[in-house]
Amino acid sequence: MRDTKILVFGQDGFLRPLMKSPARSTAVLLFTMIFIFGALVYTLLLPSHLISGGTPSKPIATTKNNNDSKMSKMPPKQIEIPLNCTFYNLNKTCPNHQEIPSNNQHRLPSSTCPDYFRWIHEDLRPWAHTGITKDMVDKARKTAAFKLVILKGKAYLETYSKAFQTRDVFTKWGILQLLRRYPGMLPDMEFMFDCVDWPVILAEHYYGGGSNSNNATNVPPPLFRYCANDATLDIVFPDWSFWGWAEVNIKPWEILSKEMKEGNKKTTWLNREPYAYWKGNPDVADTRKDLMKCNVTDKQDWNARIYKQDWIQESKEGYKKSNLASQCTHRYKVYIEGSAWSVSEKYILACDSVTLLVKPHYYDFFTRGLIPMKHYWPIKEDDKCRSIKFAVEWGNAHQNEANSIGKAASDFIYDELKMDYVYDYMFHLLSSYGKLFRYTPSLSSEAVELCVESMVCNGKGREKQFMMESMVKGPAITNPCTMPPPFDPPSLHANLRRKESVIQQVDSWEKSYWGNQNSKS
Ligand SMILES: *[C@@H]1O[C@H](CO)[C@@H](O)[C@H](O)[C@H]1NC(C)=O
Ligand SMILES: *[C@@H]1O[C@H](CO)[C@@H](O)[C@H](O)[C@H]1NC(C)=O
Ligand SMILES: *[C@@H]1O[C@H](CO)[C@@H](O)[C@H](O)[C@H]1NC(C)=O
Ligand SMILES: *[C@@H]1O[C@H](CO)[C@@H](O)[C@H](O)[C@H]1NC(C)=O
Ligand SMILES: *[C@@H]1O[C@H](CO)[C@@H](O)[C@H](O)[C@H]1NC(C)=O
């Protein structure tokens, strides 16, 4: 894909760029499914939550063979919410599903959420003491593409500006699926969503110079988006690709993750190419252009095999060469940010290969759970080629260790980033956010009700296909996972320091490796 920059007038009258995330392009490249697995016909109504969904652990009965037929002791029944597009197209009104039991009373208990959920507490900390007021939310409108109001479990939309491609569409779709999965369980709230890559709520503009956090006029506007960094206070939320990226044929994560997991079984780590692989669009960021220099030539071999992804060409050829599941062929895979975070990260980590992670500047909702040398190998940003060369040499000389870094990353992805947890993250983030509300949102005349029917009934092509494939069929039969407590500040800082010191350790190995190389020559 090109680095297409589209300028639009926002509601505020400012021109602002709508840009696709370069990162994605990488991601995209990465995948397309490999095998003929593609031939597998997914029925449109694939009951995704049945598959991914809460596996009922045990019925809650305390004694075995207790035949007391009380509901609470029976495993809950899976309810399917009907989709009737004939009805919708006749009435043009969203159906009222309130008669559908939410399973609230009978849901099975669940596990504790993955550790990265603890960042939810941190991300909402700016509003912990003040709560969230209408004024704060209104201020976040400046750059938002839309506002979603949730009232009594229903969603209402106010649209402010056009987002790039279908990222806004699949984001809203994902939120509707959350409402189907946990009906009636979210408090009333409203939130502004900005679909552009880069975070914009600069921390330095708030609490400037003091711990002013009780002063509501000095509190940042709460703004949701896909990534943030250490200088910003934007609230991170799962990106659209979990429900599909129609433009580049990246399937919903539920389906794609299964295909990738199957694909990994085809080649053991040892039988993969002993080099570092990257494929993506270099034109979106200087750091990616810099990575191109590490490609193998007649004269040098940095152990890197680097390819450009041409999305326009790919779309013409049916995405045969961008199949993500067929890109797990090397022992090492490079992850490098584009203009901001990249959706490619989960696909790279899912490969069973060692992820060589070029020092990132942005985080999304799950990447703060990654630990260097456990889940990935850190690569220096300003000395990429030598850093990659050393990483590959080290891994080929320490095959067991390298293999287990690859395995730990894919375990993380398949266990802690399965769709159940993506929904639970959204649930806990939005519940905690909603609890901070100091007002009850109301509907303006611009607000329209958003429902599965209004999004999918008149949809077309791959967009509609991905929606049908990622549709949650009905209320979950398990509870959301249990939120872990906030970090206590000393242990949070200790964790961050530990990560930093691992990275420094690798850096010092690298230095001594190159020192030795230089003294040999
Ligand atoms: C439990 O109840 C069912 C149906 O009422 C019956 O068929 C079954 O034999 C009972 N099981 C036990 C262990 O009592
Ligand atoms: C869908 O709605 C139409 C129109 O109200 C109705 O005739 C039809 O029976 C419904 N189909 C199902 C499967 O409920
Ligand atoms: C749907 O439309 C029909 C015909 O206009 C009407 O009789 C019915 O009450 C409507 N149902 C709902 C739920 O709005
Ligand atoms: C809150 O902060 C604003 C801007 O920094 C300042 O003008 C105002 O006086 C403060 N109010 C209180 C009650 O401290
Ligand atoms: C990197 O080198 C390989 C092998 O020579 C070549 O096929 C590929 O096109 C190169 N990649 C780029 C981005 O130039």
TrEMBL record:
<protein>
    <recommendedName>
        <fullName>Glycosyl transferase CAP10 domain-containing protein</fullName>
    </recommendedName>
</protein>
<dbReference type="Pfam" id="PF05686">
    <property type="entry name" value="Glyco_transf_90"/>
</dbReference>
<feature type="domain" description="Glycosyl transferase CAP10">
    <location>
        <begin position="185"/>
        <end position="440"/>
    </location>
</feature>
<keyword id="KW-0472">Membrane</keyword>
<keyword id="KW-1133">Transmembrane helix</keyword>
<keyword id="KW-0812">Transmembrane</keyword>
<dbReference type="InterPro" id="IPR051091">
    <property type="entry name" value="O-Glucosyltr/Glycosyltrsf_90"/>
</dbReference>
<dbReference type="InterPro" id="IPR006598">
    <property type="entry name" value="CAP10"/>
</dbReference>
<feature type="compositionally biased region" description="Polar residues">
    <location>
        <begin position="60"/>
        <end position="69"/>
    </location>
</feature>
<feature type="transmembrane region" description="Helical">
    <location>
        <begin position="26"/>
        <end position="45"/>
    </location>
</feature>
<feature type="region of interest" description="Disordered">
    <location>
        <begin position="56"/>
        <end position="75"/>
    </location>
</feature>
